[in-house]
Amino acid sequence: MTAVGTQTSMKVPLSDIYLDDGAIQVVSRVLSSKRYILGEETSSFEREFAQKLGARHAIAVSSGTSALHLAFIASDLGEGDEVIVPSFSFVATASPLVHLGVRPVFCDVDPDTLTLDPNDLRRKITNRTKAVVPVHLFGHPAAMDEITEIADQKSLKIIEDSAQAHGSMLGGKFVGSFGIVSCYSFYPSKNMTVYGDGGMVTTNDSAFADEVRMLRNHGRSEKYVHQSFGYNFRMSEIAAALGRYQLSKLDSFNKARREAARFYDDELRSYLETPTETRNARHVYHMYVVRTQRRDQLKAFLAQNGVQTGIHYPIPIHLQPAFTSLARSDKLPVTEESCETVLSLPIYPTISRDQLNYISHQTKTFLQSNS
Questions:
Q1: Contacts of 279 (CB under 8 A, 6+ apart)
Q2: Structural domain boundaries of the chain?
Q3: Which of 46, 80, 276, 337 pairs with 248 at a CA distance of 20 to 30 A?
Q4: Distance CA 135, CA 152 (A)
Q5: CATH number of the domain at 250-369, please?
Q6: Vertex 218, ends 212 and 221: CA angle to 5°?
Q7: What burial class does residue 353 get, using C-beta atoms within 10 Å of its C-beta: 0-12 exposed, 13-18 middle, 19+ buried?
Q8: How far is the C-alpha of 79 from the C-alpha of 315, rounded, in Å?
């Protein structure tokens, strides 16, 4: 290893998945059962996930994207409708809408939390608007009190994108419990994972849950009886077993992420813009996202010194090539500026104090020498 400044060089990944013998044992358990689709592991995962996050129903699906897709269908959205979504998000927040003939209307984000801006939401509502999709971005809750008030006034459905916010809270209430439905992702970098793609739909509405459950399995109400044109959006038994295993560790994982975030805050807040945690919010730091006008140079410097970083997101959805014909010409200044300045630093449950020290030291070294 080579010396960098006063510290020994090390390599630090942006994300690292927790893996131990327990995960391997649950896979062996499924293989031994010889039941691989929609068995006891899936039903147990659904029950345990719903209980953990305070929902009446949870439906396990193949990805966070398919969770959103099914939630949009079950919300009776269709041709000619408009749904307001933040442009500063992963493309899957909006792309399933297009498949249904729904027009996504892009909204700007709050400059502090980078979640949907309630003021811009008000401006974007028309007589075609049927729903709003708040995204609890990077693990911080959206402004659900204000969004709920607006939605109630305008008779809009709230479909929560909680893909990055497992266990995040606002006012002592879990995100995902403010709207008619919430959608989660278990992609490998998320706060909990199924070690591949996977997702979950949660709701308190029994009829809504029944429809999603049927749609994920080819529209099937019973074997070889298909009530609707559904999809193959099922979760495998192996994924469900791994999800149960990770769910049992979610609290400790989130605690570790929050401790790492506090360390970064203390070390870096004098050098660049660190993430906001608003009053009554509990951030779970799916990503630790800083902002600086020297983002690209800092990213390159950290890469040279073994630190992997990410940009979430370099191009907003409304400027993606696939969406240019659908997006209005409105400017989204906070979104567009954020895409130029955000940088995700490594954060995961097993990140060590030595790694946090090293990343902070290298970040400060760059910023001090380029002030």
A1: none
A2: 21-247, 250-369
A3: 276
A4: 18
A5: 3.90.1150.10
A6: 70
A7: exposed
A8: 27
Q: 21-247 maps to which CATH number?
A: 3.40.640.10
Do the two domains 21-247 and 250-369 of this chain adopt the same fold?
Answer: no
pLDDT in tens, the chain (371 residues): 233 445 688 999 999 999 999 999 999 999 999 999 999 999 999 999 999 999 999 999 999 999 999 999 999 999 999 999 999 999 999 999 999 999 999 999 999 999 999 999 999 999 999 999 999 999 999 999 999 999 999 999 999 999 999 999 999 999 999 999 999 999 999 999 999 999 999 999 999 999 999 999 999 998 999 999 999 999 999 999 999 999 999 999 999 999 999 999 999 999 999 999 999 999 999 999 999 999 999 999 999 999 999 999 999 999 999 998 887 777 899 999 999 999 999 999 999 999 999 999 999 999 999 87
Place of tokens 């295993």: 245
| DSSP state, residue 229 | -
Q: Residue 200: beta bridge partners?
A: 60, 184
pTM for this predicted structure: 0.96
Q: At a CB cut-off of 8 Å and minimum separation 6, what does 228 contact? A: 214, 215, 219
Q: How far apart are CA 286 and CA 164, in angstroms?
A: 6
Location of structure tokens 């660049």: 272
Q: How many angstroms separate the Cα of 92 from the Cα of each of 100, 104, 303, 326?
A: 13, 11, 28, 15
Question: Tokens 């074997």 — which residue?
Answer: 223
Written as six digits, the tokens of 242 are: 């791994």
Q: Which residues pair with 7 in a beta bridge?
A: 4
Q: What is the DSSP string of 22-88?
A: HHHHHHHHHHHHT--BSSHHHHHHHHHHHHHHT-SEEEEES-HHHHHHHHHHHTT--TT-EEEEESS
Distances (CA, A) of 281 to 42, 102, 113, 192, 298: 31, 32, 11, 20, 29
